[in-house]
């Protein structure tokens, strides 16, 4: 069944046409881009390999496992587990108990 009252298909491009508005289905793309807001409902998988780079422009950049230039826990603090903790400025700690290098309370 085809109802093509206002569809413009030329050169393989479908122009100015909503797809799936009434009955959604699947889609497979090599590139997906949006010029406005994009809304995803359900589970979303971004990337499938350790070499994939996923960037959220303007707010946070996550690449190769590093979260760059982003405050974590500024509004709602939580716990963290780290193998190394490095501070380039002043560190304020409410309690300290360093066993290997002394400083016990």
Task: List the topology elements.
Elements: E1 8-10, E2 13-15, E3 53-56, E4 60-63, E5 66-68
Antiparallel strand pairs: 1-2, 3-4, 4-5
3D structure, described in words:
This protein is mainly β and about 100 residues long. It is built from no helices and 5 strands. It has strands spanning about 10, 15, 55, 60-65, 65-70. It has a 3-stranded antiparallel β-sheet, with no helix packed on it. Strands 1-2 form a two-stranded antiparallel ribbon. The chain starts with 7 loop residues before the first strand and ends in a 37-residue tail after the last strand. The mean pLDDT is about 80.
Helix percent reads under 10%
Low confidence ranges: none
Shape category: elongated
Please compute the radius of gyration using only Cα atoms: 24 Å
Order of helices and strands: EEEEE
Can you give the mean pLDDT? 79
Distance between the termini: 78 Å
Please give the largest β-sheet.
3 strands, antiparallel
Number of strands: 5
Class from helix and strand fractions = mainly beta
Number of helices: 0
How much beta, percentage-wise?
15-25%
| Major β-sheet strand ordering | 3-4-5
Task: Name some characteristics of this structure.
105 residues, mainly beta, three-stranded antiparallel β-sheet, two-stranded antiparallel ribbon, elongated
Brief digest:
By secondary structure, this protein is an all-beta fold.
């Amino acid at each position: 069944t085809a109802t093509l009252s206002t569809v413009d298909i030329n050169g393989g491009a479908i122009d100015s046409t909503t797809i799936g508005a009434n009955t959604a289905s699947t889609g497979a793309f090599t590139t997906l881009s949006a010029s406005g807001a994009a809304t995803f409902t359900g589970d979303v998988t971004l990337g499938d390999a350790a070499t994939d780079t996923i960037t959220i422009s303007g707010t946070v950049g996550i690449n190769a496992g590093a979260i760059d230039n982003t405050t974590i826990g500024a509004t709602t603090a939580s716990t963290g587990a780290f193998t190394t903790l490095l501070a380039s400025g002043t560190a304020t700690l409410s309690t300290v108990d360093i066993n290997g290098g002394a400083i016990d309370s």
